C-alpha cells in the first residue's frame, strides 16, 4: 500500500455491467479509485453517437460514472439520471441521458479526459473514470460455428456488438487498429496503483481488450501492484460452455506475459473445475473461492459480498 495513503490505491479495468459491479464494491473500500474503461462499443446509443459524432463511445464510461456515484439520496439520483433513457417518437429515442451529457461536455472541453473529470465532479463520483485509449476502437474476432455448412471454418466477425452477440464460438480477439495509443493518464494510474483489478465482465469484449493496448498492457505487466482477476460468476454468451479454467487459458493466450497475484472465483461456478487451481498457479496466482454471486438466480456479482473479498485481499 502507498506510504502516503491510508486507503489502497486501486485501478479497475473493464467495461459494462461487470466493471460497474466491481466499482460498486471497490468504492466501499477506497476513495483512491480509477476506472479504466474499454472504448470499443458500437451498439445502441453509444454506437449511434459514435457513428454521428465520430468520437469515443460514451456508454461504458457512463456506466462507470454511475457506479461511482455515492450510495446516498443525491448519489442515487445522479446515477438514475445518468442511466436514464429518453423516450420519444423521434431520433432521440433510446439515447441514454448520461451519454448525451458526456458528449455535450466533450464538445465544450475538446478533451475526453477533462470532460470526464468534469462529469465526475458534477455527480460527485468517488474516484476517476478514464478511457483505455484516446481513440475509438473496433474489436475483431475469429469465430467458428457461424456457418452450418462449414462449422469448423473460422470466420472473422467485426464490431463489439457483433462479437458479443455472435452465434458462433469466439476463438480470439484483436483490436483495430492493432496498436492503439493508450490514454496516458490511465497508464500513469496503473503505474501508481497498489492493486489492479481486472474483470469481471464480457470476457472477449470488456476484459481482454485492455491487454491488447500495448502501453497499457506493458504497464499492467510491469507494475509492482497486486494484480487481482475477478472471474465471472457463470459463463456468458461470449464464453458459453467455458469453465473458469478455460477463461484463464484464454486470458493467457491473449496476454502470455501477464502474471496474477489473486484470482477470485464464485464457489458455485468453481465447483467441479479440477483444473482451476493449477491454471491459477501457472499464472502465479492464489485462488480465492468465495460466495460472491447474487442470490436471485441472476449471473451477477453481489457488490457487498465482492467488497468483503476485496477487503480481505487488499487489507491483508
Describe the protein in words:
The chain has 316 residues and is of the alpha/beta class. The protein has three domains: 165 residues, CofD-like domains (Rossmann fold, 3-Layer(aba) Sandwich), CATH 3.40.50; 92 residues, no CATH class; 38 residues, no CATH class. The protein has 14 helices and ten strands. Strands 3-2-1-7-8-9-10 form a seven-stranded parallel sheet, with helices on both faces. α1 packs parallel to α3, α3 packs antiparallel against α4 and α5 packs across α6. The chain is globular and about 50 Å long. The N terminus is likely disordered. Its main location: cytoplasm. Belongs to the gluconeogenesis factor family. It is found in: Cytoplasm.
Jot down its keywords.
3 domains; alpha/beta; 10 strands; 316 residues; seven-stranded parallel β-sheet; Rossmann fold; globular
Number of strands: 10
End-to-end CA span: 10 Å
Biggest sheet character: 7 strands, parallel
What's the overall average pLDDT, rounded? 95
Query: What's the architecture of the largest domain, going by CATH?
Result: 3-Layer(aba) Sandwich
Write the CATH homologous superfamily of the largest domain. CofD-like domains
CATH topology of the largest domain: Rossmann fold
Poorly predicted regions: 1-5
Order of helical and strand elements: EHEHHHHHEEEHEHEHHEHEHHEH
Amino acid at each position: 500500500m502507498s506510504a502516503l495513503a491510508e486507503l489502497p490505491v486501486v485501478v479497475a479495468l473493464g467495461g459494462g455491467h461487470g466493471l460497474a459491479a466491481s466499482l460498486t464494491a471497490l468504492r466501499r473500500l477506497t476513495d483512491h479509485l480509477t476506472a479504466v474503461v474499454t472504448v470499443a462499443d458500437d451498439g445502441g446509443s453509444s454506437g449511434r453517437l459514435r457513428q454521428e459524432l465520430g468520437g469515443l463511445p460514451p456508454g461504458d464510461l457512463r456506466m462507470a460514472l454511475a457506479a461511482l456515484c455515492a450510495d446516498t439520496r443525491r448519489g442515487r439520483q445522479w446515477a438514475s439520471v445518468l442511466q436514464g433513457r429518453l423516450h420519444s417518437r423521434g431520433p432521440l429515442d433510446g439515447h441514454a441521458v448520461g451519454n448525451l451529457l458526456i458528449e455535450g461536455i466533450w464538445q465544450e472541453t475538446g478533451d475526453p479526459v477533462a470532460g470526464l473529470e468534469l462529469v465526475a465532479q458534477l455527480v460527485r463520483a468517488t474516484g476517476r473514470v478514464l478511457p483505455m485509449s484516446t481513440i475509438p476502437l473496433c474489436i475483431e474476432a475469429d469465430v467458428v460455428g457461424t456457418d452450418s455448412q462449414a462449422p469448423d471454418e473460422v470466420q472473422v466477425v467485426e464490431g463489439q456488438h457483433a462479437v458479443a452477440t455472435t452465434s458462433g464460438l469466439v476463438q480470439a480477439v484483436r483490436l483495430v487498429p492493432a496498436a492503439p495509443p493508450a490514454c496516458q493518464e490511465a497508464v500513469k494510474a496503473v503505474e501508481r496503483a497498489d492493486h489492479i483489478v481486472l474483470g469481471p465482465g464480457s470476457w472477449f469484449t470488456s476484459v481482454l481488450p485492455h491487454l491488447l493496448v500495448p502501453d497499457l498492457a506493458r504497464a499492467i505487466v510491469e507494475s509492482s501492484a497486486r494484480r487481482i482477476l475477478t472471474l465471472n460468476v457463470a459463463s456468458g454468451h461470449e464464453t458459453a460452455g467455458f469453465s473458469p479454467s478455460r477463461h484463464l487459458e484464454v486470458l493467457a493466450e491473449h496476454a502470455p506475459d501477464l502474471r496474477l497475484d489473486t484470482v477470485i472465483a464464485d464457489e458455485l461456478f468453481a465447483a467441479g473445475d479440477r483444473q482451476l487451481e493449477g491454471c491459477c498457479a501457472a499464472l502465479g496466482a492464489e485462488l480465492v473461492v468465495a460466495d460472491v454471486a447474487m442470490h436471485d438466480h441472476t449471473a451477477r456479482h453481489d457488490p457487498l459480498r465482492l467488497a468483503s473479498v476485496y477487503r480481505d485481499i487488499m487489507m491483508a
